[in-house]
């Protein structure tokens, strides 16, 4: 019997078949069904997603609309504040700062020219006892004009600021004024020692006066005139800049106001629809305040543009023009004294008198005789078809101020009388001409100058009234602006906060 083995030898096993993915189940009809795609990553990071969901919620949308309305209101009040400041700056420059100082530079020209006129009067009168009061009056006026010129130079220096060209001109005027005063003092001292009768002084006195008057007419007066023109440019630039800023502010106020009103109405409608309320009283009041300030600010800024123009054109420009007319007129009045004082230069002084007369009131003519006739005809025909030209002629073309036309008529009438007295003086002998110059002609010029001052006073009053009215309008809104800002902010919070608290 064959023995049974205790164990059998291991038989080799076949390798396991590779595991393969089972094919996708087939849809009916044999079309395989695609496997599901892996999940897509989230569109927003977790924090951004939460922020987006918050903004899309009702409280978030309320906050977004409220923020937009508040930003628009901030733009509105910022535009109002900036525009009001531009108006205040413009009125300060024209009414209180550069404007009065520019007129002071015109007064410098007047003071300088009158100094030379009074020196000529002193030398012309001489030691004539019958005209002694005229000599003393001329000396007193000369001292007064010296003081006026000193103050005007200081104001011109302040207006020059850091401008190197204007400061050099002011220093040159000061240096020239010192030299003129020394020459004038020497001429009057020698004239007093000569004790001559009324008429031309001794030759040595005349030579010194020629140096003084040439210095005044050829150097000092042109420099003073240039200072007036340069200073006037400062005011014109300031006016143009501030007027442009106000017009831009008016546009910004209108745009920001419409945005603010749109934002508040949007917020009002959203709250009414979402919370089923007809209206929100606090937001209604805030909307009314915003609308009121938009309309009022737009209107006031438009008015202020007109006020700046009125103050500049009808006030400052006219006052400056008349100040220049007064200064030039005073200088030509001095040429009458110089015409009698210096016979060798009489023809020159007669021509310069005609040139200055044409600058004051232009009338087509080639000589003094024709000018007298043209002025008389023009004054009789005023207001005629052809307006006058020249400094006073510019005023004859203006209108609108109460009493303006009557004041212009008075100026023209007095000017024609002054020219008639000048014609009489030039037809007299030396002795009678001096008496005419010191007596009747002086009176006629005084009447004309007083009428010119009265006309300038009308424009000065209109200028002050325009500046004061513009300042009052701005100050009223400027004072209430912080109150409007605070009250609007409180009302918006009061209108929105209760609705947001419902979601807590």
UniProtKB/TrEMBL annotation:
Residues 1-13, 28-38 have a biased composition (Low complexity). Residues 1-45 are annotated as: Disordered. The keyword Cell cycle does not apply. The keyword Membrane applies. Residues 14-27 have a biased composition (Pro residues). It comes from the Bacteria. Keywords: Membrane, Transmembrane, Transmembrane helix. The chain crosses the membrane at residues 62-80, 251-271, 278-301, 477-497. This is Secreted protein.
């Amino acid at each position: 019997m064959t023995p049974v083995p205790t164990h059998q030898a291991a038989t080799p096993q076949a390798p396991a078949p590779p595991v393969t993915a089972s094919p996708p189940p087939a849809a009916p009809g044999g079309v395989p069904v695609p496997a599901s795609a892996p999940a897509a990553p989230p569109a927003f990071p977790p924090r951004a997603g939460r922020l987006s969901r918050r903004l899309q919620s009702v409280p978030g949308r309320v906050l977004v609309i409220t923020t937009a309305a508040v930003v628009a209101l901030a733009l509105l009040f910022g535009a109002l504040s900036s525009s009001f400041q531009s108006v205040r700056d413009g009125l300060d420059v024209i009414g209180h700062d550069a404007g009065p100082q520019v007129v002071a530079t015109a007064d410098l020209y007047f003071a300088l020219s009158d100094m030379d006129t009074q020196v000529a009067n002193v030398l012309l009168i001489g030691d004539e006892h019958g005209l002694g009061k005229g000599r003393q009056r001329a000396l007193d006026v000369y001292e007064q004009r010296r003081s006026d010129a000193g103050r005007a130079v200081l104001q011109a220096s302040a207006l020059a600021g850091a401008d190197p060209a204007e400061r050099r001109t002011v220093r040159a005027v000061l240096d020239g004024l010192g030299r003129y005063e020394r020459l004038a003092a020497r001429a009057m001292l020698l004239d007093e020692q000569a004790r001559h009768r009324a008429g031309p002084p001794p030759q040595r006195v005349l030579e010194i006066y020629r140096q003084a008057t040439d210095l005044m007419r050829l150097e000092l007066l042109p420099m003073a005139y240039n200072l007036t023109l340069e200073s006037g440019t400062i005011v014109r630039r300031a006016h143009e800049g501030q007027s442009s800023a106000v017009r831009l502010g008016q546009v910004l106020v209108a745009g920001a106001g419409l945005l603010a009103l749109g934002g508040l109405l949007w917020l009002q409608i959203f709250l009414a629809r979402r919370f089923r309320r007809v209206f929100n009283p606090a937001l209604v009041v805030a909307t009314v305040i915003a609308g009121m300030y938009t309309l009022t600010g737009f209107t006031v800024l438009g008015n202020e543009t007109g006020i700046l123009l009125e103050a500049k054109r009808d006030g400052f420009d006219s006052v400056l023009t008349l100040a220049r007319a007064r200064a030039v007129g005073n200088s030509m009045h001095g040429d009458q004294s110089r015409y009698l004082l210096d016979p060798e230069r009489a023809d020159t002084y007669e021509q310069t008198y005609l040139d200055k007369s044409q600058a004051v009131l232009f009338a087509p003519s080639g000589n003094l005789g024709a000018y007298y006739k043209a002025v008389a005809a023009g004054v009789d025909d005023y207001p005629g078809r052809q307006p006058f030209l020249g400094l006073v002629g510019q005023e004859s073309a203006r209108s609108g101020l109460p009493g303006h036309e009557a004041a212009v008529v008075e100026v023209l009438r007095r000017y024609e009388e002054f020219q008639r007295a000048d014609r009489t003086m030039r037809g007299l002998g030396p002795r009678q001409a001096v008496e005419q110059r010191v007596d009747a002609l002086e009176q006629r010029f005084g009447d004309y100058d007083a009428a010119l001052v009265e006309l300038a006073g009308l424009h000065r009053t209109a200028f002050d009234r325009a500046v004061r009215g513009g300042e009052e309008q701005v100050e009223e809104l400027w004072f209430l602006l912080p109150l409007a800002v605070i009250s609007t902010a409180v009302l918006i919070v009061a209108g929105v906060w209760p609705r947001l608290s419902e979601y807590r």
